[in-house]
Predict the structure.
Amino acid sequence: MGHYGRWLGWLAGCLLATPAHADIAYGIDMAADPALHGCVADREPLSILNCLNVRFPDSRMELYAVQAFPDTGVCWLKAISRPEEADLMGQSIRATTDLFAAELARRYGRPQELADFVRSGATIPEDEIWLETLIQKNREYYHHWTSVPAEAQARGIREIYVSAYGLEDGRTVVHIEYYLANYDACLENEKKAEAK
């Protein structure tokens, strides 16, 4: 089979892939057994697991985590970027966050929300700068897909967030979070666990 035939075979495979075999991101499937990705609980709550070997890692990411219960499998996925040095006005972390969002927009369309605001009720000193408000968790900066195209919904994606976070050491990271169609089942399990 020549190059053209291999390309047609690859394209047919992509088009014929069923939602059950289509990964959400980084090779992780909705409702998958987290053990398949080396996901382990190393802190409370035990339903949040760090994943050691995702199938399609991104070299810009430092950590992958999922939320899963035995009866739901994976229902939420988070990737956290490698920390980067930040400038006081937050231009670098905003640019990095925007870059990740632009990459996802090529696949899922433009996000429905772009937010940059100080949380309601936060008491911010007049001289506090953008980066400090992010580190103190008084500021939100994110791109939010409140809905995704039908193809992504068929793979189980419900919502996506790409958010900037500040670390105590003054560096910053980006979180990319996928909320999946079975996420409500995880919330129900959380409520049951809290009620015990």
Remarks:
- Residues 125 and 139 are 13 Å apart (CA to CA).
- Helices lie at 3-16, 91-108, 130-135, 150-154, 183-195.
